[in-house]
Amino acid sequence: MFDIRPDSPVALYMQLVEQLRAKIESGEWGPGARVPSEIELAREYGISRGTVRQAMVRLHSDGLLERAPGKGTYVASRTPVTHMLIGVVLPYQADMLALEILIGSEKAARQEGYHVIFSQTNDDRQIQTQDIQLMRDKGVAGLVIFPATDTPYDETIARLHAEHFPFVLVDRYFPRLDTDYVVVDNFDGAYRATLHLIELGHRRIGFLTPGSLDTTSIHDRYAGYRQALADHALPYDETLYYLYQGLMKTDNDLLSLRDILRHPNRPSAIFAVTDLLALRLLEAAQREQLDVPDDLSIVGFDDIQQASLVSVPLTTVAQPRIEIGIRAAEALIERIRGTRVQPAQIVLPTRLVVRLSSGKARTAR
Q1: What is the pLDDT of residues 99-120, one digit of tens each?
Q2: Are strands 315-318 and 351-353 parallel, antiparallel or unpaired?
Q3: Would you list the DSSP string of 169-189?
Q4: Which residue ranges of the chain lie beneath pLDDT 70?
Q5: Can you list the domains of the chain with their CATH numbers?
Q6: Global confidence as pTM
Q7: Which of 16, 44, 292, 314 is the most exposed, fewest CB within 10 Å of its CB?
Q8: How many CB atoms lie within 10 A of CB 150?
Q9: Which phi-psi region, left, alpha or beta, contains residue 314 (left: φ > 0; alpha: ψ -120 to 50)?
Q10: Number of H helices, E strands in the chain
């Protein structure tokens, strides 16, 4: 008899799903074996027929059971591969943050017997919606989703949530949806980056972003930047907020970044919310024949590999990119198996990595 525990935080139907799945995958119930009816299971295990039906629907959707009209329900003739698939939806394949999240997700999934497929949306919400549906059509058991930028709410992801389809968000989240997510402490990371520049004597510190504050990772970094200024009695100057939208596009001339640096009242330091953006800024500064860090200090966020390899190694905030993927896949598998009831909302720590792109302000020397 199955051990169905009414006092468990795991839903009764998911307890039954896991018990039946174990019988099938262990071979105790081989291919073609007849499964007891809903009434029989409900009577034998002291649970409602509705609960049994929920479990049966889940096992059918996973491809483990087959119905024979007029005869009953049987174990599928062959165990499908699709129910052991996890989809990973990324905005950019070439972005090191996204790539290492994928690597971490695949590592954790393999350890649990799952395989990973992934897609690249080019940070386009319409493509993201299409890719999510395509993955569901392929029969994935759940999704790790790195959502598109500048999106405060996404109907497709809200629909997944309403349908109780397993998914975990990474890097960012939607405040109006109580979902599973894995992010880093963006507020604290940005606070530490800004504090580092303040301690070097900088008083005019710019904030450079590739997207709007509708993206929670950017919003939280902006909030950390603002709080560090406030805690050290530095007034916020909205003219030092810079939006650069050419990050993932061909922008060989870096004109808008160079315009910032040509301004007679430019900041002495700039916190860029991604390393890719900080590296663009470093290139723009060099084209303008500015010395980094003597003329301009730069701090990024991510600690991608290129950050330590450029001509002026980048001071940055390191986030555990592979661990984000690992924790996301682990949380997703818990959700798929029904062993998690409350949302997994995981916030990982960051650390400041000081290199050569940040130095003392001229007035502090």
Answers
A1: 899 999 999 998 888 989 999 9
A2: antiparallel
A3: EES---TTS---EEEE-HHHH
A4: 1-3, 8-10, 25-26, 61-62, 78-83, 247-252, 364-365
A5: 12-75 (1.10.10.10), 82-183+321-348 (3.40.50.2300), 186-320+352-364 (3.40.50.2300)
A6: 0.78
A7: 44
A8: 15
A9: beta
A10: 11, 15
